[in-house]
Amino acid sequence: MKTVSLKNTWLKALAVGAVGCVLAASSASAAVIWNLNPNNLHGPIGSSSFTFTSQGANITARGYTNVGGQYQAAELFFKNRPPDGGAMEVGLGLANSPHNELNAGTPPPNFIQLDLRSILSQGFTNGMIAVSSLQNGEGFQLFGSNMMGVLGTAIGGPFTGLAFDNQFVAIPSFGTFQFISVVAATGNVLPSRFMATPIPEMATLMPIIGLLVAVGATSLLRRRRAAQNAAAV
Q1: How does the average pLDDT of the chain come out, rounded?
Q2: In this predicted model, what pLDDT tens digit does every residue of 200-223 receive, in sequence order?
Q3: CATH class entry, domain 32-197
Q4: Residue 80: which of 99, 105, 56, 57 has the closest Cα?
Q5: CA–CA separation, 32 vs 20, rounded Å?
Q6: Residue 144 in contact with residue 156, Cβ under 8 Å?
Q7: Burial state string for 178-207 with b = 16 or more CB within 10 A and e = fewer than 16
């Protein structure tokens, strides 16, 4: 009886350990958020590109402006101003544009492009983006491309008004395009956050698999021994 009790205790410990590892893996694969003005600064960045790091994963933002019908690199700007018209005014804009934001026009006079190649190569999924400075009547649109600096194809939006201000919206067909760009559909807008979900690393999954195999194997042996003992009686 004592031996059986010890086996039961060991099985329970393995099961608890497996559950703990599953929970750890679930936590490890929780969504990662990149704040596009992480230090709440206000001023020019001094470069047309900036790499944001969150939980060890990188995305790079680049600014572009339309000059004579062609898009050229434009200096980025960290904007941080009090709320206006109920909309948040913190995010990533351009140094030499009205209100230091993205502005509407046909074709778009400027845009900010996110380079997602690094996180896509790591298997990130479920990409989402948030844009601020969306007063009533102002909106943004998403474009996808597989070439740096090329605006590409319209894939989402327009998303218009306060209901979308600094709120995450899903990027359609995420993973199809290596570069995602934000343009102003109406008014002036300000990209503020980006989010995506990593896949659990194999190093995290292996302990789970091992524990589950151990639990299953021990349970099977226990049932066989019980059957053998019953047959012997």
Answers
A1: 85
A2: 854 344 454 455 555 555 565 566
A3: mainly beta
A4: 99
A5: 21
A6: no
A7: bbbbbbbbbbbbbbbbbbbbbebeeebeeb
